[in-house]
Design brief:
Helix content is about 40%, strand content about 25%. The chain is an alpha+beta fold. The chain has a six-stranded antiparallel β-barrel with strand order 2-3-4-7-6-5.
Length: about 190
Amino acid sequence: MANPYFSVEYSAQVNLIPLQQGDTVPEVVDLEADIPAPFRLISEVTRIDTNQARLLRNLDEHASELVEIINQQSRKIDLVLSHVLAGQDDPDCRYRTLTLGGGGFRFESRHPMTDGQTVRVKLFLPEHSVAVYAYGEVHAEEQRGHYRCDFTVIREQDRDALIRASLQQQAKQLKARAEQRAQQNDKPAS
Protein backbone atom coordinates (compact mmCIF):
# COMPACT_ATOMS: atom_id res chain seq x y z
CA MET A 1 0.00 0.00 0.00
CA ALA A 2 1.37 3.42 -0.93
CA ASN A 3 1.90 6.01 1.79
CA PRO A 4 -0.92 8.60 1.50
CA TYR A 5 1.28 11.33 3.05
CA PHE A 6 3.97 13.26 1.26
CA SER A 7 7.36 13.66 2.89
CA VAL A 8 10.00 16.33 2.73
CA GLU A 9 13.76 16.31 3.28
CA TYR A 10 14.16 17.06 6.94
CA SER A 11 16.84 16.33 9.51
CA ALA A 12 15.28 15.84 12.93
CA GLN A 13 16.33 14.00 16.05
CA VAL A 14 14.48 10.77 16.74
CA ASN A 15 14.80 8.02 19.32
CA LEU A 16 13.91 4.52 18.18
CA ILE A 17 13.48 2.04 21.01
CA PRO A 18 13.00 -1.57 19.84
CA LEU A 19 10.20 -3.38 21.63
CA GLN A 20 11.34 -6.35 23.68
CA GLN A 21 9.83 -9.82 23.76
CA GLY A 22 6.49 -9.53 25.55
CA ASP A 23 6.07 -5.78 24.95
CA THR A 24 2.83 -4.92 23.24
CA VAL A 25 1.86 -2.01 21.04
CA PRO A 26 -1.16 -0.20 22.45
CA GLU A 27 -4.27 0.44 20.40
CA VAL A 28 -4.68 4.05 19.26
CA VAL A 29 -7.37 4.61 21.91
CA ASP A 30 -4.96 3.44 24.64
CA LEU A 31 -1.92 5.35 23.35
CA GLU A 32 -2.64 8.46 25.46
CA ALA A 33 -2.00 6.53 28.70
CA ASP A 34 1.37 5.33 27.34
CA ILE A 35 2.64 8.80 26.33
CA PRO A 36 5.09 10.44 28.79
CA ALA A 37 3.78 13.68 30.33
CA PRO A 38 6.26 16.02 28.52
CA PHE A 39 4.99 14.79 25.13
CA ARG A 40 1.36 15.38 26.16
CA LEU A 41 2.31 18.82 27.48
CA ILE A 42 4.03 20.00 24.30
CA SER A 43 1.16 18.65 22.22
CA GLU A 44 -1.30 20.76 24.23
CA VAL A 45 0.94 23.85 24.03
CA THR A 46 1.23 23.40 20.25
CA ARG A 47 -2.56 23.15 19.98
CA ILE A 48 -2.96 26.34 22.01
CA ASP A 49 -0.30 28.11 19.91
CA THR A 50 -2.08 27.13 16.71
CA ASN A 51 -5.37 28.53 17.99
CA GLN A 52 -3.62 31.63 19.30
CA ALA A 53 -1.94 32.26 15.93
CA ARG A 54 -5.32 32.10 14.23
CA LEU A 55 -6.75 34.67 16.67
CA LEU A 56 -3.72 36.95 16.38
CA ARG A 57 -4.04 37.08 12.59
CA ASN A 58 -7.44 38.66 13.09
CA LEU A 59 -6.09 41.57 15.14
CA ASP A 60 -5.44 44.78 13.28
CA GLU A 61 -2.06 46.49 13.11
CA HIS A 62 -2.83 48.68 16.16
CA ALA A 63 -2.32 45.61 18.30
CA SER A 64 1.15 44.81 16.91
CA GLU A 65 2.84 45.41 20.27
CA LEU A 66 0.40 43.06 21.99
CA VAL A 67 1.07 40.44 19.31
CA GLU A 68 4.84 40.81 19.89
CA ILE A 69 4.44 40.40 23.67
CA ILE A 70 2.33 37.27 23.18
CA ASN A 71 4.88 35.86 20.70
CA GLN A 72 7.72 36.48 23.17
CA GLN A 73 5.80 34.70 25.92
CA SER A 74 5.23 31.78 23.58
CA ARG A 75 8.97 31.60 22.78
CA LYS A 76 9.78 31.51 26.51
CA ILE A 77 7.38 28.60 27.02
CA ASP A 78 8.92 26.80 24.02
CA LEU A 79 12.40 27.16 25.55
CA VAL A 80 11.25 25.67 28.86
CA LEU A 81 9.49 22.81 27.08
CA SER A 82 12.60 22.10 24.98
CA HIS A 83 14.57 21.75 28.21
CA VAL A 84 11.96 19.40 29.69
CA LEU A 85 11.89 17.30 26.52
CA ALA A 86 15.69 17.00 26.50
CA GLY A 87 15.23 14.64 29.45
CA GLN A 88 13.23 12.31 27.20
CA ASP A 89 16.11 11.92 24.73
CA ASP A 90 18.19 8.76 24.98
CA PRO A 91 21.56 9.17 23.20
CA ASP A 92 21.88 5.37 22.86
CA CYS A 93 18.71 5.26 20.72
CA ARG A 94 19.27 8.50 18.78
CA TYR A 95 19.07 8.76 15.00
CA ARG A 96 18.59 11.60 12.49
CA THR A 97 15.79 11.61 9.97
CA LEU A 98 16.48 12.08 6.26
CA THR A 99 12.86 12.76 5.32
CA LEU A 100 9.71 13.31 7.33
CA GLY A 101 5.98 13.21 6.70
CA GLY A 102 2.66 12.36 8.28
CA GLY A 103 3.08 8.65 7.57
CA GLY A 104 6.60 8.23 8.92
CA PHE A 105 10.19 9.05 8.12
CA ARG A 106 13.37 7.77 6.55
CA PHE A 107 16.61 7.57 8.52
CA GLU A 108 20.13 6.26 8.37
CA SER A 109 21.68 3.80 10.82
CA ARG A 110 25.29 2.70 11.21
CA HIS A 111 24.04 -0.50 12.85
CA PRO A 112 21.89 -3.04 10.99
CA MET A 113 18.24 -3.05 12.01
CA THR A 114 15.75 -5.87 11.71
CA ASP A 115 13.30 -5.47 8.83
CA GLY A 116 9.75 -5.33 10.18
CA GLN A 117 10.89 -4.56 13.72
CA THR A 118 8.40 -2.65 15.89
CA VAL A 119 9.83 0.40 17.66
CA ARG A 120 8.71 3.04 20.11
CA VAL A 121 9.30 6.44 18.46
CA LYS A 122 10.22 9.71 20.18
CA LEU A 123 10.49 12.39 17.50
CA PHE A 124 11.72 15.88 18.37
CA LEU A 125 11.10 19.00 16.22
CA PRO A 126 11.95 21.86 18.60
CA GLU A 127 11.94 24.53 15.87
CA HIS A 128 8.26 23.69 15.27
CA SER A 129 7.43 23.09 18.96
CA VAL A 130 6.52 19.50 18.11
CA ALA A 131 7.40 16.29 19.92
CA VAL A 132 5.73 13.05 18.95
CA TYR A 133 5.51 9.79 20.84
CA ALA A 134 4.27 6.95 18.66
CA TYR A 135 4.95 3.42 17.48
CA GLY A 136 6.33 2.41 14.12
CA GLU A 137 7.64 -0.41 12.00
CA VAL A 138 11.14 -0.30 10.51
CA HIS A 139 11.76 -1.41 6.92
CA ALA A 140 15.13 -1.68 5.19
CA GLU A 141 15.57 0.28 1.97
CA GLU A 142 17.72 -0.62 -1.03
CA GLN A 143 20.56 1.69 -0.04
CA ARG A 144 22.63 0.05 2.68
CA GLY A 145 22.10 1.59 6.12
CA HIS A 146 18.94 3.42 5.04
CA TYR A 147 15.61 2.58 6.62
CA ARG A 148 12.01 3.72 6.61
CA CYS A 149 9.87 3.87 9.74
CA ASP A 150 6.12 3.81 9.11
CA PHE A 151 3.89 4.96 11.95
CA THR A 152 1.62 2.13 13.11
CA VAL A 153 0.11 3.85 16.16
CA ILE A 154 0.06 7.66 16.39
CA ARG A 155 -2.42 10.22 17.72
CA GLU A 156 -4.17 12.14 14.95
CA GLN A 157 -3.20 15.49 16.54
CA ASP A 158 0.46 14.41 16.38
CA ARG A 159 0.08 13.33 12.76
CA ASP A 160 -1.51 16.73 12.02
CA ALA A 161 1.40 18.50 13.74
CA LEU A 162 3.88 16.52 11.60
CA ILE A 163 1.96 17.37 8.45
CA ARG A 164 1.99 21.09 9.38
CA ALA A 165 5.73 20.93 10.14
CA SER A 166 6.35 19.16 6.81
CA LEU A 167 4.37 21.80 4.94
CA GLN A 168 6.25 24.61 6.72
CA GLN A 169 9.55 22.94 5.87
CA GLN A 170 8.51 22.52 2.25
CA ALA A 171 7.52 26.21 2.09
CA LYS A 172 10.96 27.19 3.46
CA GLN A 173 12.71 24.97 0.92
CA LEU A 174 10.65 26.36 -1.98
CA LYS A 175 11.33 29.93 -0.86
CA ALA A 176 15.07 29.22 -0.60
CA ARG A 177 15.09 27.71 -4.11
CA ALA A 178 13.20 30.70 -5.52
CA GLU A 179 15.66 33.10 -3.89
CA GLN A 180 18.59 31.09 -5.24
CA ARG A 181 17.14 31.17 -8.77
CA ALA A 182 16.52 34.92 -8.46
CA GLN A 183 20.14 35.48 -7.39
CA GLN A 184 21.43 33.39 -10.31
CA ASN A 185 19.24 35.32 -12.74
CA ASP A 186 20.47 38.65 -11.35
CA LYS A 187 24.16 37.78 -11.93
CA PRO A 188 25.57 39.67 -14.91
CA ALA A 189 26.80 37.55 -17.79
CA SER A 190 30.59 37.59 -18.21
